[in-house]
Write a structure and sequence with these properties.
It is an enzyme of class 2 (transferase). Keywords: Isoprene biosynthesis, Magnesium, Metal-binding, Thiamine biosynthesis, Thiamine pyrophosphate, Transferase. Its cofactor is thiamine diphosphate; Mg(2+). It comes from Sunxiuqinia elliptica. It is a single chain. By secondary structure, the chain is of the alpha/beta class. It has three domains: 249 residues, Rossmann fold, CATH 3.40.50; 155 residues, Rossmann fold; 128 residues, Rossmann fold (3-Layer(aba) Sandwich). The chain is 42% helix and 14% strand. The strands form three sheets. It has a seven-stranded mixed β-sheet with strand order 7-6-8-9-11-10-15, with helices on both faces. Strands 1-2-3-5-4 form a five-stranded parallel β-sheet, with helices on both faces. A five-stranded mixed β-sheet has the order 12-14-13-16-17, with helices on both faces. Helix 25 links the parallel strand 16 and strand 17. Helix 3 crosses helix 5 and helix 18 packs parallel to helix 20. The longest helix has 18 residues. The chain starts with 6 loop residues before the first helix and ends with a helix. The mean pLDDT is 94. Magnesium ion (MG) binds next to loops. The site of magnesium ion (MG) has 7 residues, from loops.
Length: 634
């Protein structure tokens, strides 16, 4: 542990230690915790801004609530670094997101303080409600459940499903809305504007504190006084807010907004709220990146800045080197603009990932044709379907893992109607440090079994551009193009577009001993493995199949007539994926060759670098080489 760790923080090995502190020391602890997070994340990349924004909230929650008996659920969980550091993981925090280190998100298997596994947004209210009702069924006296959800995550439909149910329950769940007016990019939509209105509403805020103080004192009296408090409060809020409070109207008691960086006041309010019955929401106002100037000034970049100078904040190692292959996302972002300039029917859609997907390039150049719909993947798909049925050509860009949330919409709203929606699944495959909740390893399997769906994966940046170009044709129906996080291999990627024949693969290299069939960027590993095999006088034919659906059956017939040993490779689950599709082909056509399928095995893959994880799964260059040697011996 870095010797520069503050003396108070050094004394805290669990929240029980924290709860021994006098209230006057809480601010100093927050300063030490904030500096520790900055120091650690500066050299071990992770999510910075969100964690800095909830330092005071984290300290206050563990100070007031009897954790781990009382349970905290952190929505998304990218803001939980302070939580992890205060709950006994300070000395392991340098392993955060590293191979076999602690996870970057709360994980029950990692700590009893991590009450619920998270990573995808908008789940915390539903989980907290379930847990709160379970405690009352189990008659666990005085056990409290708290959900912390950001304003961005509150734009997710699932959050409203949870609110709706919580409002009609008599559970004591506390929902803390951490409002910093940011998602990764600035937050969008009516919810965001509504929250801004509350936090800026002068009349409401002017009177609120005094009235609350007065009414709060009544709270200590019997149920009649409590009802009076609730009625008066609700009426006051509705009148002063000139519109009914969204949460109060649902039946959830609303408190706030209050300053989310005043740790002593927060602790007082949390202590008051802890004993108020029924579902309630505390609205706090925070700043993403709080306490680190550069992070406050550029909140999107410092959401996850990579390595940076802990003193100046300067980011270390700019990736925009023109002599290096580009990020796939930037190939997408630039290519959709090129295509949209030629085809006025093209529009772009992202659920709250403009920067992560690079759709922000189109949003800047064509603001009326590119849409950030908030953290709302199901809506993003059906919104795209609505535009497609009117004759537009939407490129709906959703990370593979987040697309899982919209599976029914893909089937029900797009595929059945055979609409021209082009699904650009970024982060396809093992993503690395974000781990099991974020690996995009299921999309080849989950897209392949949908009728009318074309399922493709480019081997490199040029192929990505050509698939995007090909997909826009009229009457194409739903088209899925998946590509990985990070960079490809082609520095010279801006080539003229070429139409790709649907369902056609291509031969990359000749060979006679065995055939290696790849999909997507595993083709790059195979190319290198073929070269290593050649050093052993083994010649492997390599085919880039390009499409999982429709499969290139003509090419497969040729391959299975020519080779009695075949390997398939995919950066995705083996069960139901590309290799399974080839196996089905073999069964249907009575192919007798020996087939080995390389890919992600039937278990969740933890965090690490993509290289470490691909190695563990056995489909990196070495894994392919090894499998080839083994299949030839068999
Ligand atoms: C379903 C889903 N979609 C997208 C994301 C990517 N994502 C991670 S954090 C984030 C923004 C969250 O905003 P907010 O809840 O306000 O938290 P803040 O970062 O502001 O603290 C997004 C979009 C995700 N984790 N889950
Ligand atoms: C926490 C979260 O879900 C996002 O911040 C995600 O980690 C972004 O992933 P990329 O870094 O691949 O854009
Ligand atoms: Mg936010």
């Amino acid at each position: 542990m870095d010797e520069s760790v503050g003396s108070i923080l050094k004394s805290i090995n669990s929240p029980a230690d924290l709860r021994q502190l006098p209230t006057e020391q809480l601010t100093a602890l927050c300063d030490e915790l904030r500096q520790f997070i900055i120091d650690e994340v500066s050299s071990n990349p992770g999510h910075l801004g969100a964690s800095l924004g909830v330092v005071e909230l984290t300290v206050a929650l563990h100070y007031v609530y009897n954790t781990p008996y009382d349970q905290l659920i952190w929505d998304v969980g990218h803001q939980a670094y302070g939580h992890k550091i205060l709950t006994g993981r300070r000395d392991q925090f340098h392993t955060n997101r590293k191979y076999e280190g602690i996870s970057g998100f709360p994980k029950p298997s990692e700590s009893e303080y991590d009450a619920f596994g998270v990573g995808h947004a908008s789940t915390s209210i539903s989980a907290a409600l379930g847990m709160a009702l379970a405690t009352s069924i189990k008659k666990e006296d005085d056990r409290k459940v708290v959900a912390v959800i950001g304003d961005g995550s509150m734009t997710g439909g699932m959050a409203f499903e949870g609110l709706n149910n919580a409002a009609s329950s008599n559970s004591d769940v506390l929902i803390i809305l951490n409002d910093n007016n940011m998602a990764i990019d600035p937050n969008v939509g009516g919810v965001s504007n509504y929250l801004l209105n509350i936090s800026k509403s002068k009349p409401y805020n002017k009177l609120k504190n005094e009235v609350w103080e007065a009414l709060g004192k009544l709270n200590g009296f019997g149920p009649k006084a409590r009802r009076l408090v609730q009625k008066t409060e609700g009426a006051l809020k509705s009148y002063l807010l000139k519109e009914s409070n969204l949460f109060e109207s649902l039946g959830i008691r609303y408190f706030g907004p209050i300053d989310g960086h005043d740790v002593e006041y927060l602790s007082k309010v949390l202590r008051d709220l802890r004993n108020i019955k029924g579902p309630k929401l505390l609205h706090i106002i925070t700043k993403k990146g709080k306490g680190f100037k550069v992070a406050e000034l550029n909140q999107t970049v410092y959401h996850a800045p990579g390595k940076f100078d802990k003193n100046t904040g300067e980011i270390i190692g700019c990736e925009c080197d023109l002599n290096k292959p580009p990020k796939f996302q930037n190939v997408f972002g630039n290519t959709i603009v090129e295509l949209a300039e030629q085809n006025p029917k093209i529009v772009g859609v992202t659920p709250a990932m403009p920067t992560g997907s690079s759709l922000n390039i189109m949003m800047e150049k064509m603001p009326d044709r590119a849409f950030d719909v908030g953290i709302a993947e199901p809506h993003a798909v059906t919104f795209s379907a609505g535009m497609a049925i009117q004759g537009l050509v939407p490129y709906c860009n959703i990370y593979s893992t987040f697309m899982q949330r919209a599976y029914d919409q893909i089937i029900h709203d797009v595929a059945i109607q055979k609409l021209n929606v082009i699904f650009c699944l970024d982060r396809g495959g093992l993503v690395g440090a974000d781990g099991a909740t974020h690996h995009g390893v299921f999309d080849l399997a989950y897209m392949r079994n949908i009728p009318n769906m074309i399922v493709s994966a480019p081997m490199d940046e040029i192929e990505l551009r050509n698939l995007m170009f090909t997909a826009q044709q009229d009457n194409m129906g739903p088209f899925s193009i998946r590509y990985p996080r990070g960079c490809g291999c082609k520095v010279e990627w801006r080539q003229p577009f070429e139409q790709i024949p649907i369902g056609k693969g291509r031969q990359i290299s000749e060979g006679k001993d065995l055939a290696i069939l790849t999909i997507g960027t595993t083709g790059i590993h195979a190319t290198r493995a073929v070269k290593s095999l050649a050093n052993k006088e083994i010649t492997a034919a390599h085919y880039d199949m390009r499409f999982v659906k429709p499969l290139d059956e003509e090419l497969l017939h040729e391959i299975f007539q020519k080779f009695d040993r075949v390997i398939t490779v995919e950066d995705g689950v083996i069960q139901g994926g590309f290799g399974s599709a080839v196996l089905e082909f073999m069964a249907t056509h009575g192919c007798k060759s020996k087939l080995v399928r390389l890919g992600v095995p039937d278990r969740f893959i933890e965090h690490g670098t993509p290289e470490e994880l691909q190695r563990d799964c056995g489909f990196d260059q070495k894994g392919i080489y090894q499998a080839a040697l083994e299949i030839l011996q068999g």
